[in-house]
Design a protein that fits this description.
Blueprint: H1 2-45, E1 48-55, E2 84-88, H2 93-125, H3 131-167, E3 187-189, H4 195-201, H5 204-233
Antiparallel strand pairs: 1-2, 1-3
Length: 234
């Protein structure tokens, strides 16, 4: 009687955990889908936005404890501009498309992870084999995460560079003499495409998550193969 009661309790606990996992996975997938749709619609139909570095000889005039803005300013103390947000209502078809793809890649990590959780929970609730789903699911989610970490930031940078040039703003290039004075003309610094700058835009945390998931998928597949080999010898 005690063994039967304990087994039933474990079964109820297992079912509760799987139902909870199913609900969490569904929320992640649906929430990610709606979030991605809202982001893409906003990028394609609303004002275009691009963040870029600003090169200027001027400094923000921000008072400190009531003192004049320039008081106490030095090379190590003070307020400086770190960038600019460019907005436009121009069509900018290619920049908008690149930004939409970048946003979609980021959302796909959450959506695919949620769907994998749902599929696993459903198969386990029905006591069906799930090793193949787990193997392929981990591989797919890992691949999407790697793409979101490495490709998505480059698409965003390319979108900003193309958009700024199409809008005609002054940019820093080889033709510029590199001198800036207070009250003079400012320029925008476009994203650089040297290998180090490309690597700098990569999201290291998301990249490691993707690699880890991919390796786990390979290990699960290898463990299943080894188990079948052992069972075949028994």
């Amino acid at each position: 009687m005690m063994n039967t009661t304990g087994h039933a309790a474990r079964g109820r606990t297992r079912s509760t955990v799987l139902i909870f996992a199913l609900a969490i996975g569904a929320l992640l997938a649906v929430g990610g889908l709606f979030g991605a749709a809202a982001s893409v619609i906003g990028i394609l139909g609303d004002l275009w936005n691009g963040r870029v570095d600003l090169l200027t000889g001027s400094a923000p005039r921000v008072a400190i404890d009531g003192a004049p803005a320039d008081a106490g300013a030095s090379e190590t103390n003070g307020v400086t501009y770190s960038g600019a947000l460019v907005t436009a209502d121009a069509p900018l078809a290619l920049p908008r498309a690149l930004q939409a793809i970048s946003a979609a890649l980021g959302a796909l990590v959450v959506i695919s992870g949620g769907l994998l959780l749902v599929l696993l929970a459903v198969r386990m609730l029905h006591t069906r084999p799930f090793a193949r789903v787990l193997t392929w699911g981990l591989g797919v989610v890992g691949l999407v995460a790697i793409l979101a970490a490495t490709v998505a930031p480059q698409l965003e940078a390319a979108a900003v560079a193309i958009g700024i040039r199409e809008l005609g703003y002054a940019v820093y290039d080889d033709a510029h003499d590199g001198s800036f004075v207070a009250g003079g003309q400012d320029v925008l610094a476009l994203p650089l495409w040297d290998p180090l700058w490309i690597l700098d835009r990569v999201d290291p945390v998301l990249l490691m998550v993707g690699i880890t998931l991919g390796v786990l998928g390979f290990l699960v597949a290898d463990a299943v193969r080894m188990q079948r080999d052992v069972e075949g010898l028994v």
